[in-house]
Structures
1.
Amino acid sequence: MRALTIVGVLLSVQPAFAQGNEKFTGSNVDVRTVLTFKAPDAAAAKMLPEGWEGNSPASGPTQGFNLGLTLIDQVTVQDAEGKPVTPFRGAVLNIPARKKGSEMAGTMVFTGLMSAGGAPGAYGVYVSAKAKVEREVKTDSDGASRAEEEWEFKADNGSSIEVKIEYARGTVTRNKVEARVFSAAKPDFYRIYRFELASDVVRSTATGVDRVSKISIKATGEKIAPLFDGSQQLISVTSIPWYSRQVYLPGS
C-alpha cells in the first residue's frame, strides 16, 4: 500500500487483518470531495503543535499543498462490533506534517466542522455545526457526466465553510491506501486508516488537469479565516464517490 497525501475514503464490513496488537475501532463508507491549497506558510505553521513542521508532497497531483479541506458525507458507519453508528457530515481541515528529527509523518488534523454526533471526534478538535449537503449528477445521451455540489457548514461560534463546485466527471482511479492521521490537540495520538477508494482528480495545477467549470469557497472563523485570507491558491480538487475505510489504533 502506498501513502496518500490527502484525507478521504470508504469502508468494508469485516475488519482487515490487524498488524501486531493494533486495535480495530470501526469502519465507514463515505462520499467525499477533497480540496488542497497553498495557504500562507506562517498561518499554516501556527496550526501545527510544537515539534512538528509542514511536509508538502514533492510530486503528484497535490504537489506543494500545505492545507487540505476534506468534505465528508458518510453513508454508513459501524463500530468495532459491527453495530451501526449514526453517520455525520463534516468539513475537516488538515496539514501534511512530520515530526522534526524523526520519520514520523502523516496528516495532521487541526480543526473541522461536524454535524450532530461528529464533534469533538476522536481527534478532539471538531466543532459542532449545522450541515447541508447537496449533490446532483447529470449524464447525457452520449455518456458525458457533470456534477454539481454544495457543501455548507455553520457553527454557533461563527465558524463556517461553504463550497460550491461544478465539474465534468472523468475516469475514476481505484486505489488501496494506508495512512496515519494525527491530532494537533494531542500530537502523540494517531489513528491508522486502511481504505479503498475511487478517485477522480478534476483539477490539478501540477498535472494541468482542469474540468472544474465553477467553484466558490468561503471560510470564516478564528482558526479558519487566517488560512483563507485571499492569498491562498487552489492546488487540486478530487472527487471521491466511493470511500471505504477501516480504522485502527496503534499497538502499545
Note: The helical segments are 41-46.
2.
Amino acid sequence: MDSGLSAAVQARELVLRLRRAGGGRHSCLMIHGFGEGGYVWDRVLPAIASHYDAIALDLRGHGDSEWDAKARYDVQAHVEDVVHVIRMLDLHRLVLVGHSMGGEIAIHVAAECADRIAGLVIVDFGPSLNPEGLAMVRAEVEAANRVYSSVEEYASWLSARRPLIAKDILLSLAKCALRPHPDEGFRLKLDPAITRSQCRKSDAASDADLWSLLSRMEWPALVVRGAGSAVLSRNVAERMIETMPYARLETVPAAGHGVILDNPKGFEAAIRPFLISNGCS
C-alpha cells in the first residue's frame, strides 16, 4: 500500500483489518464489494485522506480480516460488523462510501447509524440490479478461486477479464489479493466459503426494502455509476436520485462495474466535490 496505516479492530467475534490514513476532523469509511478487499481503494485513499480520517475496511472473510468458521457472510452479518466498527472507533460526521455489495451494506449501516452520518456515496449499486451482470460478477470471483504459480499469473488472468484496468494497477491488485499457498504458488486471501454463500437475496421483497430505505435517507447522497456498467442501469440510477431527497448522480467514463479500478482518476473527480462539501467544514 502506498499510503495509510494497517490496523485491526475486534468486531464482535472476529478481528477485522483496515487501512487508515489522514487526520481530518471527520471520517470517511469505505466498504468494498463482493470478493474484494479494502485494497481496492488504495488509488483514491490519499485524495480522501487529504480531507478526512479515511478508513478502508476489509469485510469478514475478505482481504486480511479473519474468516468466519461458520461461514456467516450474508449482508446482515457484514452490516452488524460495520456498525460495530463505527461504534468501536467512535466515528461521527461520517461519510460512508460503498461499492457494489458494499453499497448495499452502506445503505443499511446508514439507516442504523443515522445520527452519525454526514453523507452517503453509493458506487454502482442499487435495487433492481441486472441479474445477468450480478451473475457475471459472482462467476468471476468463483473462477478466480484457484492456485496461481505467481502474482503475475493472477494479474494476467485478471487482465483478460477486466481490460479497462491499467497493467500497473492490476499487478498491485494481485499482490494485495493473494497469499502464499501452503503447498505451492498463491491463492486468494478470500475465504472460499464466501463463493458458496448467498450474500444477497435478489428478489422483489429485498428490492422493495432497499427502495424504502433510500426514500428515508435524510443526508446528502451521491450515486456513482460506471458508464459501461452491466450491473447498475442508468434508468435505475436515475430512479435512485429521484427517490432520495438530497441526491445526485455522477457517471464515470471509461468504466464498467469496477469503476474504482477501471478509472481511478475519473472516480476521484466524480466524488471529490461531494466529499469536500459534506463533512469537511
Note: Residues 5-130+199-277 form a domain with the Rossmann fold fold (CATH 3.40.50.1820).
3.
Amino acid sequence: MARAIRIHALGPPEVLTLDDVDPGVPGQHELLLRQTAVGVNFLDVYHRTGLYPLPSLPHGLGNEAVGVVEAIGPGVRGVRAGDRVGYAIAGPPGAYAELRVVPAWRCVPIPAGIDDATAASLLLKGLTAEFLVRRAHRAGRGQRALVHAAAGGVGLLLCQWLAHLGVHVFGTVSNAAKAALAAEHGCHQPIVRDTDFVAAVRAATKGKGVDVVYDSVGKATLRGSLQCLRPRGLLLAFGNSSGPPEPLDLLELARLGSLFVTRPSLGDYTRTVAELRRAAAALFTVVQQGAIRPAPRTELPLREAARAHRLLEQRDRSGAIVLVP
C-alpha cells in the first residue's frame, strides 16, 4: 500500500483526503515510479471542482511528477530500475501519490543538473510554454505578445521564452509586486490589473495591437484579449482561472480584423513519443542555457495538498507549488 491524495466528492480544497491505496504492478509498457516531487497546477483545481470531469469517484488528482523507476513492466525498452524520470499528462489524473504506475512512453529522462522539485515544477508548465511559443504559434523576433497572468507559473516561463526569442512582451498582473516579478522574468511592459489593459496595449502599440495573446484567465479577459490583437492576430486561450468564457460569436472575429482563435491542450501537442521527446529536449535546453529560470516555488508535504490548492487559488501569489511525498 502507498499514500495518495484522492477526492470522494467534488468541492472545495477540503474534499482532498489522504488515502492508503494499492498502486498495482506495472503491466505491458508501464513503469512503477517511486515519486519524489509532484507538481500542482490549475488543471488539478478544474478536476477537483468538476469543470473538467473525472472518469469516476473516488479518484486521484495531479498530472505531473518526477520519481525513480521502481519496477518495469513487459515490453519496456530503454529504461532501467533506478532511472530518474518525469511525466506530464500520463493518463487520468493521479500524480498526488507516493507510488504510481504510468505508461512508459509518457516519461522523459530528467537531465543531470536539474533537481527533482525543479523538474516537477517545470514539466507541465514548461511543456505548455514550449508548444505555445514554438508550435501553436511560431514566436519570433519583432513580434509583440500579451501574456495574461504573467507572474503565474506558466506566465513567468512564457515571458522568459518569448523575450529569449526576441518578442516584445506585455503582461497583465494583479499587483505591483507581481509586476516587478514579471519584469525580472522577461516581461517588458507589465500592466497591473486595475489598469485598462486593452487601452494600455493599444496606446503602447500606437493602435496596431499585438501579434498574439496568451490567455489562461478566460472569462474575465477573453473579450479584451480579442481587442488587443492586430488584424489576423491569434488568440491562444489555454486556461480558465476566472471561469469559462462566454460563447464566442464568429462574426466578431471578422469585425475585429479576421482574427484567429484556438483552444490548444498539451495532450494534443504531445501525442507521440517523438513529439514529447522533442518538446522536453527544447524545454530542458533553454533551462540549461539559462534562458529560462524556473519560477519561484513553494514546497509542501503531500498531506498538505488541500493547503496547496488554497494557495493556488489565491490570485495574489506567484510561482509554482510542489508536493513532496
Note: The domain at 2-124+272-324 is CATH 3.90.180.10 (Quinone Oxidoreductase; Chain A, domain 1).
4.
Amino acid sequence: MFPGSTAVPLGRGRLSDRVAAELERRILLGQPGARERLPTEGELCDLFGVSRSVIRDALRTLKARGLVHVGPKQGIVVADPSDEAFSEALLLLLARSGLSMREVTEARSAIEINIGPLAAVRGNEYDWEQMDEHLNGFGAAVQGGEWPRAHAEHLAFHLALLNAVHLPALGILLKPVQEVIVLSSVPPSADNPELWDVPAHPPILEALRRADADAVREALEQHFARFLADERYAAFEKRPFRDAGLEAVARLNAGGDARRGLR
C-alpha cells in the first residue's frame, strides 16, 4: 500500500505525467490491488507535494488507460484488469491510419492462418467442443435470421481458435485484436445468409480435431481467400476501416451490441 505521509520523489517531465507514471507503477505492482481504493485527492496532493489540478490530470490519464474508476461516492478505485482501453486505442490507431477494411481483414487473416496450425497441436477436446457449440449456434442463428446472435457466435468461434493455442501471454497480446475481429467479421449485408459463409467453418474445426496442422492452415487460407475474393464484399472492403467497420457493427446494434456481450 501507499506509505503514510512520506513524500514521493518524482522524476523529470510534465508534473501530472510523472504523478500518473508513479501511480501506474504502484497499481501494476498491486499496491493497491484491483477494487481497492487509492488515497483521496487531498491525500495524494500531500503525498506527491503537488496541487489538486495536477492530481486530477494524472487521474484522468489513469482513467483513460483503464486503470482506475473515479466517482463522487466510490472515490478512486483500482479497476479490474481489462483490455478495453487497449482495444479502443488500437481501433483509434486503425481509424486514423486511413487503412481500408480489406487491409485490416488481410492482417486479421494473417494472424489466424498462422495461429491455426499451432492451435491444432496445442488444443484439446474441450476447445473443440466450445468451437462446435459456437458453430452450431452460428448456423442456427443465420438460418433463423438472428443477425446479432449470428455475429456473436461467429466471433466466438474465431476467438475460441485463438484461445486454443493455450499461451497465456499470447492471449493477452491478442486481446485488443478482438475488437478488430468484431469489426471485420460483419457482412456488408448482415441479413443475407449467404454472406455469412457458414459452410467455410466446419472444415476448420474438422482439421483441428484431427490435429492436422497443414489441413487447418489450408482450411483457413481457403476461408479468407473466398471471403476476400467475393465481389459482393468488394465495395465494402475498399472503404476506409473507420467508416465500414463502425457502420457494420451499427447495423447489428439494433438487436444488441455483440461486442459488449463478448467482453
Note: The chain has 14 helices and two strands.
